[in-house]
Write a structure and sequence with these properties.
Blueprint (H helix, E strand, L loop, with lengths): L15 E4 L13 E2 L1 H9 L3 E13 L2 E11 L13 H7 L13 E5 L14 E5 H7 L4 H4 L12 H8 L24
Parallel strand pairs: 1-4
Antiparallel strand pairs: 1-2, 3-4, 5-6
Length: about 190
């Protein structure tokens, strides 16, 4: 009879889910996670409450502590109403989908009104586009190219991005996190 002992789990494999004081994640996409060192530091600085723990412990000569798997901030952090304009946030707003053909590969972003024709790099003028559609549209206006975005570009709220982020759960979710995360498993991204 052979007994297999599971190798010890590295602390690096034990991130902590970070919740706001209202027990909602600070962000869904990317998921608000801290490395184990940051989580322990926040515990010692009394900035967080430990909500759940891993089985894994860290030790020093005079101290032993189970690693936090879920922590909540003691002070509520008001999320910004409007997120920063970034390429990633444009893709998230548009659900990682080309706004011209619906494809999901080789995404870029496209200026609906091209910069060469006075278009600005702002929420209301930029959409996710696959490279072939972006190349096909070139520097033409939608009326000239016959290519109109499926959704009119808009400035999303943080809530909009959180809602869209719920369609794209991360590859790894610890079971202790599940009561605090809400992904739409039935919905296709």
């Amino acid at each position: 009879m052979t007994i297999h002992v599971a190798p010890p789990v590295s602390p690096e494999a034990c991130p902590a889910l970070v919740l706001n004081a209202d027990y909602r994640p600070l962000s869904y996409y990317p998921l608000s996670l801290w490395c184990w060192q940051d989580a322990i530091k926040a515990v010692f600085m009394e900035r967080v409450n430990i909500v759940s723990e891993y089985e894994r412990c860290v030790r020093s000569p005079s101290f032993e502590m189970r690693l936090p798997s879920v922590v909540s901030l003691k002070t509520y952090v008001k999320p910004p109403r409007h997120p920063a304009f970034t390429r990633f946030n444009v893709f998230l707003r548009d659900r990682f989908t080309c706004q011209y053909c619906g494809g999901r590969e080789d995404l870029t972003f496209d200026h609906v009104v091209p910069r060469s024709k006075g278009g600005q790099t702002v929420w209301a003028n930029v959409v996710a586009a696959c490279a072939p559609c972006n190349l096909l549209k070139g520097d033409w206006l939608p009326a000239e190219s016959g290519m109109w975005p499926r959704q009119k570009p808009y400035q999303p709220t943080v809530h909009d991005l959180h809602q869209n982020g719920r369609h794209f759960p991360p590859n790894y979710l610890h079971e202790s996190w599940m009561d605090y995360l809400y992904w739409d498993a039935e919905l296709e991204p």
